[in-house]
Amino acid sequence: MFPLVFMVAHVGVERPATIQLISKRWVEGLEDKHLDLCYASYQKTLLSYRRKRFWPLLMVVASVWLVLPAVFWQRWRRRLPEWQTLNEMRTEIREVRKQRRRRTFWNRIRRQRNRIESEHPEDLRRFYRTLASAARHFNTRVRLLDFTLDRQAKQLDPPFTVREFEQIEVTFRRIRDELSSAFQLLALAEQDAEIDLVRLMRDEYGGLPLNTDYLDQSADLGQAGQLVYDLLCFESALRDDLARLVPAAP
Hints:
The chain is built from 8 helices and no strands. The chain has helices spanning 24-62, 68-76, 81-100, 105-109, 121-153, 162-191, 197-205, 225-244. It is elongated.
């Protein structure tokens, strides 16, 4: 039986035009809007927390000579949803600010503001966080592909076959299309204040199933298998994150 020559034909080492990095300015803009929304939500939650803690804290101060009220206060405040939300948001703000510190001085000064008003700021915050994180991970994988192709160009690694390279390109294209759809959704909400982003998210991602059943597609792809498997895992995680963005219908 003769081998199928076209299945093992080698391709060039150029990254195809369909696989492009997401603009760094766009990713940084998402992080800025995410941070701006985090600050606004943090201040609102902090005001609510201060109102609820006023009388219990006053009783603790008045009975400062006793140990029991102080212990009660330390335990009781953890039951407040505002206290838990504040802790989560401090961690979230710290992560975004850590990412922003990697920028140049002028890029840190030029901060973009969130222009979307929503009755569900927590859902909008998760949407920003998901898109910014997914865009950075996508760019990382594109750079890894460039690194792999560069090693192949230097004949340090064997080149991909046509089938392997087609699978890589198709997977990148699916992820890019999913991100492009999410970016367009965000742009629509920014351009028209009457558009309800939460409703758009429900329409777009409400029927999106959790998708982890196609990760075995890379089992027979040779040296490209690990790269494709990593891309499929990333695509599956992205789809899961988008599906979880949709709030429960009232």
